């Protein structure tokens, strides 16, 4: 056997340099300071905006696990966001107004739907999987439209804010910090997952499913577990959105929402822990800024996306890698 | 069903290596395997037994249904009929991954490894499948000492210990084939299915692979699908010849070499 060429020496992803290693903490601190600093500059509106970005980040992070690590192109993730949001609506409508009850129940409900939807759709691959997850999400969408008790197409307004329980009344922006804490937890979990047994198995299935089965992995069970777990987290994000917006309508779970979520994850970086936060922050900020200037904000957005595809095909999070390799 | 299936003709010829010579009880028995693709009978009531410690080679011209048979045995294709028993356990209705857990492991004709990962990562992944649950979400897998040891032992077994930190996809073909074998060995199989392990190899690498397979017979029985006749005659205790989805004959090397029909359908054409 000829000797191995030098180029095959391990280039396992380089350990983050010192500034990058502290990046999560710096970002967390900066985000935590926003509710204290923003009012001084008259930027109160942006507290709510950042809160929304954080919630969508949680949903995107969960999608990134099944899409980025698991290779499952699920085009129905917004469906689970909707299940979570409507769980809150159902509870509020029934007179329960505790966040600490509503959010876990929302996760359970989304997980339950995902167990059924996943058990069916995970038997398919590729385009069929995309179509079947899309179909299920659209079914959920039309169910929501037909729920006249909860406003049907017009949606459902939550007029008295839900109670944050023990945290209630500490600070007017308490909800913001709770959202931030959960988003940080989701970020940490996604990072942790990558190197864990489950994460490794999931990535193995993404890269070579047949071999994984031939090595003894219960491929279907692993994919289903990831699918259900991701849906539960998406359900949580939906429940948080319901509280954040004080309003829930079926448009939350329209298939275009699933597609947008998908684009945000790809934009940020598939299978990277910074993928979801970067993708969501950049996408939502761009949309926000462009909407200020033009009603036709979609087309400059498209141009921006093309630029990313050409100059950062592996997502924004991968740009840092390339710089390090060049250095 | 009984696992002590009678051995096909020619099998009474002396065997080089037999762990259980008194009973001749097979470790593995496939009985009456059938697979149809539309009107094509790709696997036509195939019976194959593998004795403990045996290297049983499966040869046959292209299109004879060798790969189909391997896929039926490993479970990647569902069989239309027939039964599979390994070491007293009926595997017939088991999913591929369950068969692996009962000791039936396989390699692939087209190298099936994780090309973008290092050799070590490949082996860790294989080791993880057989050491505890794969549903843990928080621990750091690469720091588990037991898995690292298993990975190293596997690498040493196939001779890849000094390439552990190389990206698998950049290794030479022969080394990739060895890695493919190592991934299957992690299951500590009772029966190892080798699907053309020498495919695409030069003479040098083929020799190494023959040596490797010869070493492996101490650990596991082997069902070897191979085109390289020198390797087959060198390694196999018994040889089954598959033609048009049926087992034409089964016996030791001398029996196969002297079999007129085999010469006609296979060796004659292959010798040119």
How are the secondary structure elements laid out?
The complex is a heterodimer of chains A (327) and B (272).
Chain A: H1 18-21, H2 23-37, H3 44-69, H4 77-93, H5 99-121, H6 126-146, E1 156-157, H7 174-195, H8 197-207, H9 209-214, H10 219-245, E2 247-248, H11 255-268, H12 275-293, H13 298-311, H14 317-326
Chain B: E1 28-37, E2 40-50, E3 55-59, H1 66-74, E4 81-86, E5 89-90, H2 96-101, E6 104-106, H3 119-128, H4 145-158, H5 173-185, E7 191-195, H6 203-216, E8 221-225, H7 229-235, E9 238-243, E10 246-251, H8 253-257, H9 260-271
Parallel strand pairs in B: 3-8, 3-9, 6-7, 7-8
Antiparallel strand pairs in B: 1-2, 1-4, 4-5, 9-10
Helix pairs in contact in B: 3-4, 3-5, 4-5
Quickly describe the structure:
The complex is a heterodimer of chains A (327) and B (272). Chain A is mostly helical and 327 residues long. Chain A is built from 14 helices and two strands, in the order H-H-H-H-H-H-E-H-H-H-H-E-H-H-H-H.
Question: Mind explaining what this structure looks like?
Answer:
The complex is a heterodimer of chains A (327) and B (272). Chain A has 327 residues and is mainly alpha-helical. In chain A, 70% of the residues lie in helices and 1% in strands. Chain A has helices at residues 18-21, 23-37, 44-69, 77-93, 99-121, 126-146, 174-195, 197-207, 209-214, 219-245, 255-268, 275-293, 298-311, 317-326, and strands at 156-157, 247-248. Chain A has a two-stranded antiparallel ribbon. The model of chain A is unreliable at 1-14 (pLDDT under 50). Chain B has two domains: 1-103 and 189-272, Rossmann fold (3-Layer(aba) Sandwich), CATH 3.40.50; 115-186, no CATH class. Chain B has a six-stranded mixed β-sheet, with helices on both faces. In chain B, helix 3 (119-128) crosses helix 4, helix 3 runs parallel beside helix 5 and helix 4 (145-158) packs across helix 5 (173-185). The radius of gyration of chain B is 19 Å and the shape is globular. Chain B starts with 27 loop residues before the first strand and ends with a helix. Residues 1-21 of chain B have low confidence and may be disordered. Chain A binds chain B through residues 1-2, 4-5, 7-12, 189, 192-193, 195-201, 204, 207-208, 210-219, 222, 225, and chain B through 74, 76, 95-97, 100-101, 105-106, 108, 112-118, 121, 124-126, 128-130, 132-142, 163, 165-167, 170-172, 174-175, 183-184, 186-187, 204-205, 208.
């Amino acid at each position: 056997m000829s000797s191995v060429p030098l180029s095959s020496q391990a280039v396992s992803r380089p350990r983050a340099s010192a500034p990058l290693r502290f990046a999560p903490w710096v970002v967390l601190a900066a985000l935590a300071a926003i509710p204290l600093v923003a009012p001084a500059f008259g930027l109160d509106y942006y507290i709510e905006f950042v809160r929304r970005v954080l919630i969508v980040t949680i949903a995107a992070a969960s999608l990134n696990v099944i899409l980025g690590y698991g290779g499952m192109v699920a085009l129905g993730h917004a469906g689970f966001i909707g299940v979570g949001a409507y769980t809150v609506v159902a509870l509020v409508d029934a007179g329960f107004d505790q966040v600490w009850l509503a959010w876990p129940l929302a996760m359970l409900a989304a997980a339950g739907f995902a167990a059924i939807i996943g058990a069916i759709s995970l038997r398919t691959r590729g385009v069929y999987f995309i179509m079947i997850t899309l179909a299920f999400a659209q079914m959920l969408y039309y169910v929501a439209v037909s729920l006249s008790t909860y406003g049907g197409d017009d949606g459902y307004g939550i007029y008295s804010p839900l109670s944050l329980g023990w945290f209630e009344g500490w600070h007017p922006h308490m909800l913001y910090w709770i959202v931030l804490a959960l988003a940080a937890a989701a970020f940490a979990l996604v990072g942790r997952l990558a190197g864990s047994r489950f994460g490794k198995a999931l990535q193995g299935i993404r890269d070579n499913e047949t071999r994984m089965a031939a090595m003894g992995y219960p491929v279907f069970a692993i994919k289903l577990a990831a699918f259900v777990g991701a849906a539960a987290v998406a359900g949580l994000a939906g429940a948080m959105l319901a509280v954040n917006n004080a309003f829930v309508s079926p448009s939350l779970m329209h298939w275009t929402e699933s597609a947008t979520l998908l684009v945000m994850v790809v934009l940020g970086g598939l299978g990277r822990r910074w993928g979801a936060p970067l993708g969501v922050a950049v996408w939502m900020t761009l949309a926000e800024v462009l909407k200020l200037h033009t009603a036709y904000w979609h087309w400059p957005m498209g141009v921006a996306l093309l630029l990313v595809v050409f100059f950062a095909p592996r997502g924004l999070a991968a740009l840092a890698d390339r710089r390090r390799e060049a250095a | 069903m009984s696992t002590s299936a009678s051995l096909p003709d020619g099998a009474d010829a002396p065997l080089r290596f037999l762990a259980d010579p008194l009973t001749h009880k097979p470790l593995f028995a496939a009985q009456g395997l059938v697979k149809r693709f539309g009107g094509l009978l790709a696997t036509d009531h195939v019976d194959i037994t593998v004795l403990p410690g045996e290297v049983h080679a499966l040869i046959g011209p292209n299109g004879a249904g060798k790969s189909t048979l391997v896929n039926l045995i490993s479970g990647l294709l569902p069989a239309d009929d027939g039964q599979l028993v390994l070491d007293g356990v009926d595997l017939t209705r088991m999913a591929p991954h369950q068969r692996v857990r009962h000791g039936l492991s396989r390699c692939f004709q087209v190298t099936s490894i994780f090309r973008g990962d290092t050799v070590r990562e490949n082996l860790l992944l294989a080791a993880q499948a057989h050491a505890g649950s794969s549903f843990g979400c928080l621990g750091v897998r690469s720091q588990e000492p037991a898995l690292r040891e298993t990975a190293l032992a596997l690498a040493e077994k196939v001779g890849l210990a000094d390439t552990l930190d190389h990206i698998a996809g950049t290794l030479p073909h022969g080394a990739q084939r060895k890695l493919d074998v190592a991934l299957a060995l992690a299951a500590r199989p009772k029966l190892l299915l080798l699907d053309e392990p020498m495919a695409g190899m030069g003479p040098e690498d083929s020799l190494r692979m023959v040596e490797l397979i010869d070493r492996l017979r101490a650990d596991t029985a082997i069902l070897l699908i191979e085109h390289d006749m020198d390797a087959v005659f060198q390694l196999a205790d018994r040889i089954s010849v598959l033609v048009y989805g049926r087992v034409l004959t089964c016996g030791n090397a001398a029996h196969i070499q002297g079999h007129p029909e085999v010469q006609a359908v296979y060796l004659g054409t292959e010798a040119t």
